[in-house]
Specification:
With 564 residues, the chain is of the alpha/beta class. It has 13 helices and 30 strands. Strands 9, 10, 11, 12, 13, 14 and 25 form a 7-stranded mixed β-sheet that branches. Strands 16-23-17-18-19 form a 5-stranded parallel β-sheet. A 5-stranded antiparallel β-sheet has the order 26-27-30-29-28, sandwiched between helices. The longest helix has 25 residues. It is globular and about 85 Å long. About 4% of the residues have low confidence.
Length: 564
């Protein structure tokens, strides 16, 4: 079976003609020349016939919408031998087929990019019965996240946490000898974690009969790709595509080319521990790597151009992390920009600060000033897809690009650039491509910094509420009153909730403290379900746990808190 796109044929000199009736619906079996919809011109009504037989999988227009020749209107599931003379979409090159014939170099559904969003989309579509081809330039699946991002960084942060906890245990009566740091074994542990996950993905792909191609895919038309591998170049046509090509670290153009100046990928290689390292960027990635390298023995300076580290989070949530970093000996410069770097025996960095220019010398510089999408690297224009000036691919709520048979998900469609957003978008894209009526309609998307202490927030922030004049009521619970936090020796935490003054519903929440990234899920669910303070306070939480602090914050809002 194949999926075919049906377009408005030649309707003479008419354009922007309104649809007055849809004559078919998803699931209907239609014959060739059956009428599928009715148009109304200023002279008469016109039934548009189907150029082929098949089963309607998706209606892509609605009554009242205006269409012209070449407008995509429905999608059919047909037998492999079905052919039709259909209008070529106006946005596609004239030589591009609307539905390429089946062959060894044809894919019903192709997914470009095997990161969390891409492999999720591929696996979901396969589970729904589609033949799926997954393309990625890496020799292993998993994209940036599994190979050089989220997973290896958390492995290093785990090592750092163990070292920190061993040191902190001295204050509680446990003494340990000086730790022996074996970088080869640490890298081995990190690499083993990555290998286990990426190997698992290979097994999941085989189980679902997903065809995997290693290579870099570039669009050559609305239904065709060129795939460049190390020793081969091949052309692949497709019926539908899902773009999930992610993002890459944003560079600073004024920095010199020098192997001692690295991005997050280079930092995760952990070739050595530099005596002194500068981290440019006080966001999540920069701070996570800063803490890992500091615990392993580097002296760390952090430079952030804004007034605080982690600019997206509320100031009171960031404050405990800032204090802990400084107490540990890390230097933080806010409202400061790097104005230049000279590479010599060491790296000479010049800073513009509120007090004037300062010069310091470093053995390594980590650039962590954000990420930029890879939309400009896939030849999207050849497929009739426009990019934003920033390189994003605009999509609708069903993850469709300007070409309805081509979807895009993850970092390449916009902020926030988070793996868990990409996976949900991937499922939506796969399900829509398979004819299901779904959309990406997340009420909120949580953010987490896996620093020590962790920082997590979701929904409306207090900073944004003030900036946009949104009225909220705030309640918080300090962890110095949490039995569980005190027993862990980590009272430097805070749980905060924001409520709608009229309905009492949870609008947002933020947590700083141990395991904040795990705890934020309850607040995320509360927002999605429209829960209010009573729902949280009347939910019995186990004692003693850190999760109690969510309920205590709700009780503080209701005036029923007895733990303070």
């Amino acid at each position: 079976m194949m999926i075919k796109d049906i377009y408005i044929p030649d309707i003479g000199d008419f354009s922007d003609v309104p649809i007055i009736e849809l004559l078919v619906a998803p699931g209907d079996r239609i014959a060739k020349d059956d009428a599928i919809l009715t148009l109304e011109t200023d002279k008469a009504t016109l039934d548009v016939p189907s150029p082929m037989a098949g089963t309607v999988t998706e209606m892509l227009v609605q009554v009242g919408e205006t269409v012209s020749e070449g407008h995509l209107v429905i999608r059919l599931e047909t037998s492999d031998g079905a052919t039709a003379e259909v209008a070529t979409p106006a946005t596609a090159p004239a030589t591009t087929p609307s539905a390429a014939p089946a062959s060894d170099d044809h894919a019903s559904l192709v997914v470009i990019g095997a990161g969390p969003g891409g492999y999720t989309a591929a696996f979901r579509a396969a589970d729904l019965g589609r033949d799926v081809t997954l393309i990625d330039p890496r020799p292993t699946l998993g994209g940036v996240c599994l190979n050089v991002g989220c997973i290896p960084s958390k492995a290093l942060l785990h090592i750092a946490k163990v070292l920190d906890e061993a040191e902190a245990a001295r204050d509680h009566g446990l003494g340990f000898g000086r730790p022996e740091i074996d970088l080869d074994k640490i890298r081995g542990f990190k690499d083993d974690v990555v290998a286990r996950l990426t190997t698992g993905l290979v097994g999941l792909a085989k189980r679902r009969k997903v065809k995997v191609i290693q290579g870099k895919a570039t669009f050559t038309g609305a239904n065709s790709l060129m795939i460049d591998a190390e020793d081969d170049t091949r052309r692949l046509t497709f019926d539908q595509a899902i773009i999930s090509v992610g993002s890459e670290p944003a560079p600073l153009s004024f920095l010199p080319e020098d192997p001692r100046i690295i991005d997050s990928t280079g930092a995760l290689e952990l070739t050595n521990v530099p005596p002194r390292m500068l981290v440019i960027g006080g966001g999540i990635i920069g701070l996570e790597m800063a803490q890992a390298y500091h615990t392993l023995g580097s002296k760390i300076d952090i430079v952030e151009a804004t007034p605080q580290i982690i600019p997206g989070a509320d100031k009171d949530i960031v404050a405990p992390l800032t204090k802990r970093l400084r107490d540990k000996g890390l230097t933080i410069h806010t409202d400061t920009r790097v104005t230049g770097v000279t590479a010599g025996d060491t790296l000479e960095a010049r800073f513009g600060t509120p007090k004037g220019e300062v010069t310091e010398f470093y053995d390594r510089i980590l650039v962590a000033v954000g990420r930029r999408p890879n939309g400009a690297k896939i030849g999207a224009e050849a497929a009739g897809i426009e990019l934003t000036p920033e390189g994003f691919l605009p999509v609708d709520a069903r993850m469709r690009t300007r070409q309805p048979h081509i979807f895009a998900i993850g970092d390449v469609v916009g902020q926030p650039m988070l793996a868990h957003k990409a996976t949900h978008e991937g499922k939506v894209a796969a399900e829509v491509a398979c004819g299901e009526k779904v959309a990406f309609d997340a009420g909120c998307i949580p953010s987490v910094a896996y620093t020590d202490p962790e920082i997590a927030w979701v929904g409306l922030t207090e900073t944004r509420a003030k900036a946009e004049g949104i009225k909220v009521e705030k309640a918080s619970f300090p962890w110095m009153a949490s039995g569980r936090a005190l027993s862990m020796g980590r009272s430097d935490g805070l749980t905060k909730l924001l409520f709608d003054p009229e309905t009492g519903r949870v609008l947002g929440g933020a947590i700083v403290g141990a395991n904040a990234g795990d705890l934020i899920a309850e607040i995320t669910l509360a927002i999605e379900l429209g829960a209010d303070a009573h729902d949280l306070s009347l939910t019995i939480h186990p004692h003693p746990t850190l999760s109690e602090t969510v309920a205590f914050s709700a009780e503080a809002h209701l005036g029923s808190l007895t733990d303070l």
